[in-house]
Design a protein that fits this description.
135 residues; mainly beta; 3-stranded antiparallel beta sheet; 3% helix; globular
């Protein structure tokens, strides 16, 4: 797959969660990516750890937990985070598997943040935005 050039903000859809288009912010200072989530509840399903949560537009979702880790936010406060994999589509019709932590990003302009690990799939032009198109 060819690595697309993206700007500092791009649009992503997450069809498996019913999210049509959401604004994603590129953050090369962040190691991991995160997705807006509320009402995060772990539970067991088929002998594995899963997590229930609500995401953009209060959509109810479930996903298998990849791992749980303490993450320090930009304000320096550590918190327990559940990491899940999502398949995000871009406006150029490419799919990207992203490992994201679930956290409340209600006060942020962009519900999806892409950190360095996710950015390996892209080239980034930080001087521009929405290089893949506009909604």
């Amino acid at each position: 797959m060819k690595r697309p050039i993206i700007g500092r903000r791009e649009w992503f859809s997450i069809p498996e969660y019913g999210v049509d288009w959401v604004r994603g912010k590129i953050d090369s200072g962040a190691r991991t990516s995160s997705l807006h989530a509320t009402e995060i509840e772990p539970f067991a399903k088929g002998g594995s750890e899963w997590v229930r949560f609500k995401t953009i537009d209060d959509l109810a979702c479930e996903a298998p937990v990849i791992f749980v880790k303490r993450v320090k936010s930009s304000n320096g406060i550590p918190s327990k985070r559940y990491f899940v994999e999502i398949v995000a589509e871009t406006l150029d019709d490419q799919e990207h598997v992203l490992l994201v932590s679930l956290t409340c990003r209600a006060s942020m302009k962009c519900p999806l943040l892409l950190g360095r690990r996710a950015l390996r799939q892209f080239f980034v032009d930080c001087t521009r935005s929405q290089l893949l198109g506009k909604i």
